[in-house]
Amino acid sequence: MESGSLATELLRPPSPRRRRTDKAMRALMWTATFIALVPLVLVLYYTLKKGIGALDWEFFSTDPTGSFLGTQGGVKSAILGTLEIVGFAAVVAVPLGIGVALYLTEYGGRGRLAQAVRFFVDVMTGVPSIVFGLFIYLVLVLGGTGGSTFAGWKGSAALALLMLPIVTRSSEVALQLVPGSLREAALALGAPRWKVVLRVVLPTAASGIVTGSLLAIARAAGETAPLLFTSTIVKGTTFDLNEPMNSLPAQIFQDLKQPNDELVQRAWGAAITLIAMILTLTLVAKLIQRRSRGKGAT
Amino acid sequence: MEAATHQVSSGGRPRLGRSPASRLPDRALRYGLTALSVAVLALLAYFFVKLAVESRLVFEEEGVLSYVFANNWNVADSIYGALPLVVGTLITSALALLFGVPVAVAVALFLTELCPRKLRGSLTIVVDLLAAVPSVVYGLWAFYFLIPKLKPVEQWFADTFHFLPFVAIGSVPGPNYFIAGLVLAIMLLPIVCAISREVLATVPANLKEASLGLGMTRWEMIRISMLPYARRGIVGASMLGLGRAIGETIAVTIVIGDSPTLGHSIFGQGYTLAAVIANEFNEAAANPLHKSALIAAGLVLFVLTLLVNSIARFAVMRSERQSGRPIAGGGGL
Description:
heterodimer; A: 298 residues; mainly alpha; MetI-like fold; 73% helix; B: mainly alpha; 1% strand
């Protein structure tokens, strides 16, 4: 990128004014990056500071009591509830999302149906999560599907709707990166199409798909809005997905503005727990992504 | 692969033919996946129809236009004019774009152009981590940290610049449009930044090299050859951020102030479409008209985000086609 001797003769060095502008804009970009990191540091620091005191064995091993006076209990039901709801949502949404992505890259191509699916999956990515919650409320909760009104699996359904387009979108990108020559080689060797798709294309794109799915799960785990009127906020622990179920984000939302310091502190403690869960997922996803990039799979 | 060849030749068929039985999984997979995709489309259609049907009650009662444009949201008197909510949504999202997009683009430029190579990877991850903090935690933080810390600053600003439009207010309430906008700005920053970064990465190297070769400074190269090339993609990224800001619920619900009136200042309390649903839905379950009004709010929200996202996708897709590289916006999604 160094200009050669001819160029330096031909071109005068930038005037002081231009150089000043350059410096100023560079400084501005440094500052902007710094500014962008401030909220992250502040959120993490403040949450740790406020919530670390709440974390003890009781916090993780007892359910919220809900009593007006006396001890308020921990968030066991919320932690388990989040794991159950998000886990079930992932079990449903990830395979479906990958399936749609496989259709788009392997069979749909540039056809009209595929383009429509692509467009509407993008539309789905933008649908506010609370609207998914509303939809599930209208269809499953009011309809009393499965013999229950509010239920954990209905929360999962709302989260699954949220995750599906994210999984599809990221898997599609990962699948597109699989070189066509690989498919052709496998087909030329006489492998049937389905085997090429499932045994050659899918494993090649696996790391990208896993990354995308983990990010989608992480995103869903932090959602509160779709859970408020699907799985709702309860006190007790349950392992029955067909019952109302507590979750960490909903518990935080509930405790947040309570005029009781213990409850507010519990909210901060729950926030630490939730952030820890989501950060772990995100970092694992990013590491997988980085590793596969390092291998030269661009 | 070996197994496949073996299977074929042992069937006693022509070497290159396949028995109908072995073709079955082929068809099953193809039609299965197609059906799945069609089912997703059907689900989305059902989704829209369901919302429209369930909100019909309030549209019949108030009329579609006066539902959206009447400035009166009064649950006690069963009057539902959602203008304060729509305006609240637009104000907070506009503020979020105003604060968030310049920083996000600057960070994206920094990461693609200025950042030392060693720092780049980890810094990118750190910026992406902003998206990993759940919205309820942002709300919690904003409520207990941002609101008390910024209140004096807001008050000072409102007093000093009271002559500017939409700034003057007697005493700044804790939760208000400005705080909500700020929180939204933080939340959309990683999305806008991630997509802008990918768009900027599509600027051809020879364009940049040519600029530098002509003796441009780095900033001139960015301004003259990179930004115009990436403009459409950056606009698309911002629109995606906007879509996100419009639909964001919980963080806004916590810091907006829950007041269904039109604020006359950016430091006034307000309400947004998403926040009103989150707050009022539980009490509304027994009141059909109220419930339908909230579902209608959801429908308006859906249509709004649909419009914004379609424009955004179109813009990003154009710049995708221009460069021939897929843009996923991985960190932001």
